[in-house]
Amino acid sequence: MSATMLPRTDILVTEAELSTVRREVEEGPVALSGFAAVMANGDVRLLPPELSALIQRAVQALATNGSVSIGSLPEELTSNTAADVLGVSRPTLLKLAKSGQVASFKVGSHTRFQRDDVLEFKARREQERRRALSELLDLEDQLDEYN
Fold first, then answer.
1. Which of 50, 76, 78, 132 is 20 to 30 Å from the Cα of 146, by its Cα?
2. pLDDT, tens digit, for every residue of 13-42?
3. Can you list the domains of the chain with their CATH numbers?
């Protein structure tokens, strides 16, 4: 499986642009069919629903987190790519796979991962972290009440 690497383009937004994005998002959600592009000749072209959904998710993430990353992943991931997605080392990922926490399969002697399995594991892990943080904050509030 050979992939052509395209040059990476980073788009940095200013604080003023970020403020505008946040203000627009606070005013309420934009209908998915509401995104359009004004062409060079002045014509207005309605964007397909899939592109509108992508733009809406990107704008929402930017407003919520102050940054957004957009990329694509192949359906089948190498252990190095899957480890990068999860933010863990390759040996840690292979231990997670061996214990059954992350689904994997073999191609010859190489361990491979389905993109959706990796993203699902990442979401579960993030949900667990948020739950643990919430419990910790609740415990901290309880301790503050006793002091």
1. 132
2. 888 888 888 888 887 765 545 688 899 999
3. 15-65 (no CATH), 76-146 (1.10.1660)
